[in-house]
Amino acid sequence: MKKAIKWLDDYLEVSLGVVLMSLMTLIIFIQVIARYVLRSSLSWSEELARYLFIWIIYLGISYGCKLMKHIKIDACMSLFPKRTRPYVELAGILIFLAFAVYVAVTGFDLTMKQIPLNRKSPAMGLPMQYVYAAPAAGMALSAIRLVQAVIGQVKKIRTGVS
């Protein structure tokens, strides 16, 4: 069980991202071949590629949170004394965490509102709640990664490591 949790912690976003990106690339490739070689277009391929891309983006946000590689304004950090910089970093993570939780909760509510409407995508007839679930799922994963970052930052502050 611990191995499975460790594997999910290490590779969840990457493995899902690779699968979704490969699937999206394959679908687009098939569409190009169908359109220009077979002179027949697939009606559903562009729609599915778009929806896969949305999921890839939100998984990428979570992966960026895991690596702490999101855009930061480093010039602002130099304005603070070295002793207070870890606290400013912690404050930034906490603000991002609050935003991620807000988007996840709002996205979940929006997803739940799609179910009784029974809306379907135009070309594939895919229930739209699967598309609307991407922000909720991605930002919920991001929130988990940001909680991990908060714990790591608090440990750094306690041990005095910068």
Q: What global shape is seen? A: elongated
- Alpha-carbon distance between the termini? 33 Å
Poorly predicted regions: none
Question: Would you count the extended β strands for me?
Answer: 0
Query: What is the gyration radius calculated from CA atoms?
Result: 20 Å
Oligomer: single chain
How much strand?
Answer: under 5%
What is the average per-residue confidence, as pLDDT, rounded to a whole number?
Answer: 93
What is the H/E string?
A: HHHHH
Q: From the helix content, strand content and strand pairing, which structural class follows?
A: mainly alpha
Main β sheet profile: none
Percent helix: over 70%
Indicate how many domains the architecture comprises: 1
- Count helical runs: 5
In short:
This protein has one domain. The chain contains five helices and no strands.
Characteristic terms for this protein:
162 residues, mainly alpha
Task: Furnish the topology, listing elements before pairings.
Elements: H1 2-36, H2 45-67, H3 74-77, H4 85-117, H5 129-159
Membrane topology: Multi-pass membrane protein
GO molecular function: transmembrane transporter activity
InterPro entries: DctQ (IPR055348), TRAP_DctQ (IPR007387)
